[in-house]
Design a protein that fits this description.
Number of helices: 12
Number of strands: 4
Shape: globular
Structural class: alpha+beta
Oligomer: single chain
Keywords: Membrane, Transmembrane, Transmembrane helix
């Protein structure tokens, strides 16, 4: 269990979108329910959240927010179930859609393209805000880091890059959106909606990535009928991080809980979860502030804030949706693009999520200064 879980932790942080190979769900045991049932729960939750957004035209903002939050909670439950019930054993024997020999050049090319593109676009469009170009360039280096830095997993540059990315994200949000977010978080319903949505997002990513699981795989000579907590050295994001591996046999009734958490994992997932929560709080604030405004304006604002959140949250279930739709064998190549540590897809998903979420907050903050 220790070896497998440590490997799982390494795979996990290759991407927020990854469903790790080592987190095989249940080993040879039959899943407790079919995967399509989890998909049905996911769709019900999405329908409830979208329906609440449209019902906003005919009801108060507070009621609509309550319905949207309930829908998000149900959707997250279905998404977690979709990943936890994944037929990993079937997929593990499959081949990736792209030869692994291409992963290195693709990773380098994508990373450098982001660096150069961020510099050019940042200087041309926002010459008075060099922090935008700096953040984009750092995110590009995040993607290219495993290829351009020798001994990447143990190189101190990796720790500096991780800290620089998190600090720059915080600086951009603070400089451009602190005033607007301060007003949004001062509104109690908006604050609670943001906190709840961010928490759901964090748990969703943790379970979908294999950091936490209710269906641990036996192995490694460890008795899963016993509780344990031990330290582990976890690879990625970028470098090795100190971590904790644990297993609680009867965590929820007779349902076990296992997981691997590291400083790097928590920092990466926490960053995205906080950004999702801040965007959600901003959405709630807009709904409440425009309670007497026409529905067209409210709907437009909702789409502008909700779109980045939807984009960042869809990645972890893309492969599993393919599994349900076309079957494990046909979906395996797509699955491997997300799972393989050498694939650039996972890192690209993370940096895109951060750029969209932080960029949306910065844009909203700039607009609030001119309104």
């Amino acid at each position: 269990m220790h070896t497998r879980s440590t490997a799982r932790g390494a795979t996990v942080v290759a991407a927020l979108a990854a469903v790790p190979v080592a987190s095989a769900h249940g080993g040879e045991a039959a899943p407790p329910m079919p995967q399509w049932l989890a998909l049905a729960v996911l769709l019900v939750g999405v329908a409830a959240a979208v329906g609440s957004a449209y019902a906003r035209r005919r009801t108060s903002a507070t009621v609509a927010l309550g319905g949207a939050f309930a829908g998000l909670a149900v959707a997250a439950t279905g998404a977690v179930g979709l990943v936890q019930l994944s037929p990993v054993e079937t997929l593990a024997a499959s081949q990736p859609a792209i030869s692994r020999a291409w992963f290195g050049p693709l990773t380098l090319g994508i990373g450098l393209a982001i660096v150069v593109g961020s510099l050019v676009v940042g200087r041309m469009r926002w010459p008075d805000r060099p922090r935008y170009a700096a953040l984009g360039m750092l995110l590009g280096l995040w993607v290219a880091y495993p290829v351009i830095v020798p001994g990447s997993l143990t190189n101190p540059v990796g720790y500096l890059l991780a800290a620089a990315v998190l600090a720059t994200v915080g600086y951009v949000v603070w400089r451009d959106a602190s005033g607007l977010l301060g007003r949004a978080l001062a509104d109690r319903p908006s604050r609670w909606f943001g906190a709840g949505t961010g928490t759901i997002a964090g748990l969703f990513f943790a379970f979908s990535m294999g950091m936490l699981t209710f269906v641990p795989e036996p192995g490694g000579g460890v008795d899963l009928s016993e509780d344990f907590v031990t330290t582990a050295r976890v690879a990625n994001p970028l470098v090795y991080w100190p971590g904790v591996e644990f297993h609680f046999h009867d965590f929820l009734g007779t349902t076990p809980l296992s997981g691997v958490l590291s400083v790097g994992m928590v920092g990466m997932v926490g960053t995205v979860a906080v950004l999702v929560g801040l965007n959600a709080a901003l959405l709630a604030y807009q709904w409440r502030a425009n309670d007497a405004t026409g529905s067209a304006e409210v709907t437009t604002g909702t789409a502008a804030v909700a779109a980045p959140n939807a984009c960042c949250c869809c990645g972890p279930v893309v492969a599993e949706l393919a599994v349900v739709s076309v079957g494990p064998a046909a979906a395996a190549p797509l699955y491997w693009l997300f799972v393989d540590l050498a694939s650039p897809v996972g890192a690209l998903f993370f940096v895109t999520s951060v750029a969209l979420l932080a960029g949306n907050l910065a844009r909203a903050g700039r607009r609030s200064l001119h309104s």
